[in-house]
Amino acid sequence: MPDDLDFSGQAVLVTGGAQGIGRAIVEAFALRGARVVIADLGLVRAEAVAGELTAAGCQVQAVGVDLADATAIFDMMTELEQRLGRLDTLVHNAGYFPLTPFAEITPAILERTLAVNLSALFWLTQAALPMFRRQGRGCVLVTSSVTGPRVAYPGLSHYAASKAGVNGFIRNAALELAPENVRVNGVEPGMIATPAMANLGDDGVNQDIARRVPLGRLGQPNDIAGAMLFLASSLAGYVTGQTLVVDGGSTLPEV
Question: Which InterPro entries match (predicted)?
Answer without folding.
Answer: KR_dom, NAD(P)-bd_dom_sf, Sc_DH/Rdtase_CS, SDR_fam
